[in-house]
Amino acid sequence: MSAPIVEALVRIEATANREVRSMLLHHVQRFLATELAPAELSVTRFSEHRFDLIAIVDAAVAQPGGAVALREAIRFLFGSQASDAAAALHACDAEADREPSCLGRESRLALLDALDGIALPAGVDVPLLFSRATEPLPVQTSAATLTQAVVRLERRATAVSLFRFLELAAAHSSTTDARDAMRTWIDKNIALVPRHRRREITDLRAELTGRLVDTDARTVLLIRVDPVEDDLYTVFAWLGQTDGPPGPNRGPEDVLTLPQLQRWLAGLVAGLRDGALDPARGPLIEFLLPSSCFDLDVDTWPLDGTRLGAVYQVAIRPMDTSAARGAFAIQRWQTLVASVNSATTALDCARWLDSTVPPLAGHAAATPWAWLAITCPSMSTSAAGVDAVLDTGAPVAAWLRGGGGADDLEKLGRGRVVTELPRTVRKWRELSWKAGTADRRRDLVLLWDDPTRPPPREHLVSAPQAGS
């Protein structure tokens, strides 16, 4: 039923120009190519106005998703305000509604049931999600409800845009049980998405849940060091993977002095060095510290004739999370994830701090930065300054003990994404310890606090200890 589309297009004066009609055909193919492998539509062209439009429209609507592609090409070229353009868009919508759905009856009913539980928060509407779901050539829609959006998307050339829309709706749902139900439906029906496009859906979910795309699970040793009194510390230690829960507590049962703590850790690492903590596998060692202990130079602790931070990727994390930090942390992390997934260099998404004296100005949630490069000399020596930095929600920060080091921090961020900083810091520490005391790279401190990996509670059951 392409006649209504042709009649509306004929009335658009610009289509009398053959070059304009060729542009229309080009954009139909362009919109189709966002979902299907690029291919030339087989069209016999005519010099006569109406015959040429009939050939273009017939070729378009014969393709799966072609009516939608034709609609978007018309909207792109002629807008939607003029009456003839609006009539052409309406005729394309009617044609698209006749295309078969990619969903079967049972899967469609199950999807609509899952949609009923989704509750979108204020500021997030269906047209916004629809536009993002149809990227890289976003489509405008008049659909105001989730169900209307599904009706539009289930008749596109592939199910990719539909599944992208559902992932977006799930991620923005204010109810977690409805979000989980939607993701369960997506996982159960992912075979509807062409095999070579499924990675797009999994990567989108990773991005929306604050995880990094294309990252492998790694071993992480998390060590909680809590001061008691008179240079005594309680210690908890958990070994696990970045994509799973931690194992049982491996920490010592007794409180330790700082030298005892260093010797205990060296022994623990030595026992795991040929296995889980093999340096060749790039494991992480993270120290969970109160802000009053951020001056502990844990990366310099001795290890087999060298230093812990020269062998392993050593970072520190805050033990406590304030209400202010909690309000910003996830948003900062999502900004960081987006910067990494888009290959934005660390230097281009950094915020520089030359003072940590509270209150810190200009760290509102809307500020688009992913990590902090700190040159303030009192960083690590002032608990109030550390707390002020943590309250910005920064998931990552780097500074040099003693302050300054702007040149080193700038070099650290240039030419690499934020997630490469731990590897670079480790290598710089290794090189600096070999170079000698004048090399300030040994003073690098890295804060790395991934909010998608919250630390365990310290009272988890302990593992059997050596000699017990």
Write the layout of secondary structure elements.
Blueprint: H1 3-10, H2 18-33, H3 49-61, H4 66-78, H5 83-97, H6 105-115, H7 126-133, H8 146-153, H9 160-172, H10 176-189, H11 198-208, E1 219-227, E2 232-241, E3 256-257, H12 258-272, E4 284-289, E5 302-303, E6 306-307, H13 308-311, E7 313-318, H14 323-341, E8 350-353, E9 371-374, H15 383-390, E10 396-400, H16 406-413, H17 421-435, E11 444-448
Parallel strand pairs: 1-4, 4-7, 8-9, 9-10
Antiparallel strand pairs: 1-2, 2-3, 5-6, 10-11
Helix pairs in contact: 1-3, 1-5, 2-3, 2-4, 3-4, 4-5, 6-10, 7-9, 8-9, 9-10, 9-11
Account of the 3D structure:
Helices cover 43% and strands 12% of the residues. It is α/β, with parallel strands linked by helices. It has 3 domains: 3-97; 105-208; 219-448, no CATH class. The strands form 3 sheets. It has a 5-stranded mixed β-sheet. Strands 8-9-10-11 form a 4-stranded mixed β-sheet, with helices on one face. A hairpin with a 2-residue loop joins strand 5 and strand 6. Helix 1 (3-10) runs antiparallel to helix 5 (83-97), helix 2 (18-33) packs parallel to helix 3 and helix 9 (160-172) runs parallel beside helix 11. The longest helix is centred in the C-terminal third of the chain and has 19 residues, at 323-341.
Low-confidence stretches: 460-468
Largest sheet: 5 strands, mixed
**Range of helix content:** 40-55%
Number of helices: 17
Q: What is the overall shape?
A: elongated
SSE sequence, one letter per element: HHHHHHHHHHHEEEHEEEHEHEEHEHHE
Radius of gyration: 29 Å
DSSP summary, beta strand count: 11
Total individual domains: 3
Strand order of the largest sheet: 3-2-1-4-7
Distance between the termini: 82 Å
- Integer average pLDDT: 86
Q: Roughly what fraction of the amino acids lie in strands?
A: 5-15%
Task: Give the structural class.
Answer: alpha/beta
